[in-house]
Amino acid sequence: MFKRFATLLVACSISLTPQSYAQPGPEHTKAESAAVTAFLNDLSANNGIYMSIRRIEFFSDLAKGQQPFATVVTCSDSRVHTNMFSRAPEGQLFMIRNIGNQLTTAEGSVEYGVHHLHTPVLMFVGHSRCGAIAAVSGNYSKESEAIKRELDTINISSNLNNMDGVQANVHNQVSAAMIKFAEEIRKGELVVIGGVMDFADDMHNGAGKLHIINVNGESDRSKLGNVKALLSEKRLRTGTH
Question: What's the whole-model pTM score?
Answer without folding.
Answer: 0.84
